[in-house]
């Protein structure tokens, strides 16, 4: 039986996914390159998280250098995921980018059992493949956005790795502390990457310093989507498996596509095939909590 506390946590997770669905829209509203955008996002997030940890009187310490290294490295994975995510939206549309992210659960269904040394669950693979079938339908009808879909697929793979690694770290550390060190790793990586990109002229037309209007969206990404949403999602990993979290994140295209159409109108209108594929993704999300009730209960599902 689902308790009220579990229901609140699940609704909280959906609220976080709604916030993340808005990030692709935000990425199209700023003038800086995806690399620079992720740098400002993570750099400001470090300051915000430091304040939160200090106010809550939490400890900044970690048990050993190995764990610290894992957090910093995971931050680099997260930064790479965000760079590819925003780049996908830039070269295609926010809707295509979000649809490609729906394969996160498919990647997770293979990565999580491998990392945790557990057998692959047929149900998770089947629903992941269903989500992937939805992506295939999208790809068939939106072939002109192949590059954007490819970048989104790579971003989804990195997102799956990031979530699985965090699901192990959260068993020993507070979510805000984990996110704090990950943002440090991400900001150092993106700063170095931004200099290399400028030196190699990969982003010659993109400014380094954001325009005045950009700061509103950058602060939203840093404080709402990162300090709040990212840290809270890590905390929710104590209750839910990485697979369930990433499967719920598949709703990000649904929320994001609706938001993109609201902000950009006809530019984000897609073919009927696109929406059919998105419907398959939504069905995979809704079927998981129903079908999983008939699966043998496992300790890992509760996030313990």
TrEMBL record:
Transmembrane segments: 12-32, 38-56, 68-87, 93-111, 123-139, 145-165, 177-196, 208-231, 243-264, 270-291
Localization per Swiss-Prot or TrEMBL: Cell membrane
Keywords: Cell membrane, Membrane, Transmembrane, Transmembrane helix
Main location: membrane
All copies of domain EamA, residue ranges: 16-139, 147-287
Coiled coil residues, start to end: none
Topology of the protein relative to the lipid bilayer: Multi-pass membrane protein
InterPro entries listed in its UniProt record: Diverse_Substrate_Transporter, EamA_dom, EmrE-like
GO cellular component: plasma membrane
Domain of life per record: Bacteria
PANTHER family according to UniProt: EAMA DOMAIN-CONTAINING PROTEIN, OS03G0707200 PROTEIN-RELATED
Full protein name: EamA domain-containing protein
Native species: Dyadobacter helix
């Amino acid at each position: 039986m689902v308790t009220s506390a579990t229901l609140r946590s699940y609704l909280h997770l959906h609220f976080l996914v709604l916030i993340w669905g808005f990030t692709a829209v935000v990425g199209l509203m700023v003038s800086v390159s995806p690399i620079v955008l992720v740098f400002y996002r993570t750099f400001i997030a470090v300051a915000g998280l430091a304040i939160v940890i200090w106010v809550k009187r939490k400890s900044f310490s970690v048990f050993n250098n190995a764990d610290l290294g894992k957090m910093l490295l995971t931050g680099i994975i997260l930064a790479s995921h965000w760079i590819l995510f925003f780049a996908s939206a830039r070269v295609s549309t926010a809707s295509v980018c979000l649809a490609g992210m729906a394969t996160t659960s498919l990647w997770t269904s293979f990565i999580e059992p491998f990392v945790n040394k557990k057998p692959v669950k047929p149900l998770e693979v089947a629903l992941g493949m269903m989500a992937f079938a939805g992506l295939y339908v999208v790809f068939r009808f939106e072939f002109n956005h192949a590059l954007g879909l490819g970048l989104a697929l790579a971003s989804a793979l990195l997102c799956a790795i990031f979530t699985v690694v965090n699901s192990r770290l959260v068993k020993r550390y507070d979510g805000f502390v984990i996110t704090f060190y990950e943002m440090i790793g991400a900001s150092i990586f993106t700063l170095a990457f931004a200099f290399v990109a400028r030196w190699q002229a990969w982003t010659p037309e993109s400014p380094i310093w954001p325009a005045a209007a950009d700061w509103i969206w950058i602060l939203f990404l840093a404080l709402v989507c990162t300090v709040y949403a990212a840290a809270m999602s890590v905390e929710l990993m104590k209750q839910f498996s990485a697979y369930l979290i990433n499967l719920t994140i598949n709703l990000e295209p649904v929320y994001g596509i609706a938001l993109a159409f609201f902000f950009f109108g006809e530019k984000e209108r897609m073919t009927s095939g696109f929406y059919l594929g998105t419907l398959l993704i939504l069905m995979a999300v809704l079927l998981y909590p129903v079908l999983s009730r008939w699966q043998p209960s496992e300790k890992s599902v509760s996030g313990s």
